[in-house]
Amino acid sequence: MKSTELNSPEITVIVPFLNEQGTLQELHDRVESALSTTGKTFEMLLIDDGSSDGSLETALAISKADPRVRVFSLRKNCGKAAALQIGFEQAAGDYIFTMDADLQDAPEELPGLLEKLEEGWDMISGWKIKRNDPLSKTIPSKLFNWATSKIAGIRLHDFNCGLKLYRREVIKEIRIYGEMHRYIPVLANQRGFRVTEKPVQHYARKWGKTKYGASRLLKGLLDFLTVIFLQRYLRRPSHIFGGVGAVIGGIGFFVAVYLTILKICGQALGNRPLLLFSVLFILVGVQLISLGLLGEMLAAQQREERFPLRNLDDKK
């Protein structure tokens, strides 16, 4: 859907950065050169994620020299997802690119992504077929991408590539936090958007150092569980809570029936631990089923919400 604001740019490029002072000017120049070949107007949003090396001052200098560049700054390091979410909220373009500031993904790939999107897709994710990173990053990344593709049911090879392109309606329907920037393709697919990938070149880091450590693997795993839970059970919470509760409660019930038969046959039950487990399982099962029903009541209040309706009456 086209933006209705007067003189609004057709393209927005969102670049979150953390201590990337050495690459920002070159990044801007290459983005400007690449997008000039598309014939479309653009803006560039530089989102400072709490840099401490002078990156913010460099970004402000770029903005002063180029009015198409806007700069936003977080007071402290909040993570890439938070920086991207700010960019999504401020973007004015109909096509939204996101890319990292380290220049490992080339700005010259942008026109090719735009051509791919115009084939009818809603989101294009970059696919780094050959990564120029150490094994400590590439091996966990391959495992992560394989597991995410299998469990989430979306066939992509590289979920975490920073180079992506979206139609405006995609970024307006998703909200990210924590480490969920890794799962934007999954979130978009959940909303019914058409998602694909395009191979892109990947280059070795020329300046600065990586911001990703081992601690983010655990955070990413927890966020992945959140995404999968929301994907499968957001609208029907009773399917998970009620299902688990029914299984646990059922086990407790059948154990209670078994113990009742033993009691009828004259056996003493007072010293049997199985009796306590039976009561515990029944209580836990009832509580989980009740929790599922409460979740259904809350979900029912949201069901009149926005459904993933595609706009087929787009008069440009």
Any overview of this molecule?
The chain is of the alpha/beta class. It has helices spanning 24-36, 55-65, 80-90, 110-117, 135-152, 168-173, 184-190, 215-233, 238-264, 273-300; strands at 11-17, 42-48, 69-73, 95-98, 123-128, 164-167, 195-200. Helix 9 packs antiparallel against helix 10 (273-300). It starts with 10 loop residues before the first strand and ends in a 16-residue tail after the last helix.
Termini separation comes to 8 Å
Largest sheet: 7 strands, mixed
Please compute the radius of gyration using only Cα atoms: 25 Å
Question: Proportion of β residues?
Answer: 5-15%
Order of helices and strands: EHEHEHEHEHEHHEHHH
Per DSSP E runs of 2 or more residues, the count of β-strands stands at 7
Structural class: alpha/beta
Summed up, the helix count is 10
Shape: elongated
Which strand order does the major sheet show? 3-2-1-4-6-5-7
Low-confidence stretches: 1-6
Q: Estimate the mean pLDDT confidence.
A: 82
The helicity comes to 40-55%
Compose a concise summary of this entry.
With 316 residues, the protein is α/β, with parallel strands linked by helices.
